[in-house]
């Protein structure tokens, strides 16, 4: 599938990102295809990243929408009762922030569980779209930037610095969480 998508250029990347987010996971498939396209045709790096974001956002939204209409069965097939309850608690407590880390990092995290959970537990559509869109923009535009800057060494650099990426992502989520808590407290105070 990835070879066929490579022939289509950035639009193939859109299709792979869509399929990865909506249907069949392709671990790091979008990432490697985006990096390869950015290195091969540097002038298309950012348009390719934009199409990857659009495909991923559309695919995720379809999965989320299906889950809103009765996805608890889907969720229970993929997670234990304890896991479902944990996702419910996280969605209730943190809202869309639960989507940011698994959507932003190019490591295999159970993103689909959180997307389905967001739908099942009726996360607001706008919050869902903003969280997934922001996280995918950071991930795919960041990868395009690194690919343009470092070329063939990009995959080695990303692999060697995954800890730094994880720490930066956790810090970003903590910042959003603190801002959310602070703004909620301010609204509660009147």
Question: Which terms would index this structure?
Answer:
single chain, globular, 190 residues, mainly alpha
**Tally of helical runs:** 11
Mean pLDDT: 84
User: Poorly predicted ranges (pLDDT <50, ≥5 residues)?
Assistant: none
Question: Which structural class do you get from the secondary structure elements?
Answer: mainly alpha
- Helix fraction bin: over 70%
Q: Using the CA coordinates, give the radius of gyration.
A: 17 Å
Distance between the termini: 54 Å
How many structurally independent domains? 1
Which helices and strands appear, and what pairs or packs with what?
Blueprint: H1 2-7, H2 10-22, H3 29-40, H4 45-68, H5 72-78, H6 81-94, H7 97-104, H8 111-120, H9 125-150, H10 154-160, H11 162-189
Describe this structure in words.
The protein has one domain (2-189). The chain contains eleven helices and no strands. The protein has helices at residues 2-7, 10-22, 29-40, 45-68, 72-78, 81-94, 97-104, 111-120, 125-150, 154-160, 162-189. Helix 3 (29-40) runs antiparallel to helix 4 and helix 7 (97-104) packs parallel to helix 9. The radius of gyration is 17 Å and the shape is globular.
